[in-house]
Amino acid sequence: MCRMSTITATALSLSLAIAGTALAKPATPTGGTTAAKPDVIVVPKMKPAGTLPPETAQKASAQDREMAQRLDPLARAAFWAKEIQIDGRDAQAGIGMSQALRTLGNYDDALEAAQRVLVVDPGNVEALLEVARAQISRGQGFYGIEAARQAQALAPRDWRPATLLGVAYEQASRAEEAEAAHKLAITLAPGNPVVLTNYALFLAGHGKLDRAEALLREAVSKPGADTIVRQNLALILGLGGRLDEAERIARQDLPPEIVESNMAYLRNASASGDVRSWDSVRQGQ
Question: What is the 3 state secondary structure string of the chain?
Answer without folding.
Answer: CCHHHHHHCCHHHHHHCECCECCCCCCCCCCCCCCCCCCCCCCCCCCCCCCCCCCCCCCCCHHHHHHHCCCCHHHHHHHHHHHHHHCCCCHHHHHHHHHHHHHCCCHHHHHHHHHHHHHHCCCCHHHHHHHHHHHHHCCCHHHHHHHHHHHHHHCCCCHHHHHHHHHHHHHCCCHHHHHHHHHHHHHHCCCCHHHHHHHHHHHHHCCCHHHHHHHHHHHHCCCCCCHHHHHHHHHHHHHCCCHHHHHHHHCCCCCHHHHHHHHHHHHHHHHHCCCCCHHHHHCCC
